[in-house]
Amino acid sequence: MKTLFATALSLFLFMTSILAADAPYRHVVLFKFKDSASAEQVQALEKAFAELAGKIDTVKGFEWGTNVSPEGLNDGFTHCFFVTFADKAGLETYLPHPEHQAFVAKLKPLLDKVCVVDYVAR
Known about the structure:
Blueprint: H1 2-22, E1 25-33, H2 39-55, E2 59-66, E3 79-85, H3 88-94, H4 98-107, E4 111-120
Antiparallel strand pairs: 1-3, 1-4, 2-3
């Protein structure tokens, strides 16, 4: 019985690792802009972030939106950007890419806080 359980557990862990390797890699970014950031500056950054998807070929999906939650638990974060890559290597190409770095240089002076979470989709 123990051998059967150990074999089943090993198979489950093996299959989970295979599925995780093929699963999309998600990059979630939350922004809280400084109070001094104008609406025009924020709109320009929204547009610039959206344009990255077309400039960096490892981006497989992109969506974004502003907070509409009635719960009031956003801690001041107003914007959520959701970037999908085929795998972690896609993110590793994206982060140092000159287009991404240029965007970050424009963004940093207007940011109060940022939160980034990466995960493998299950």
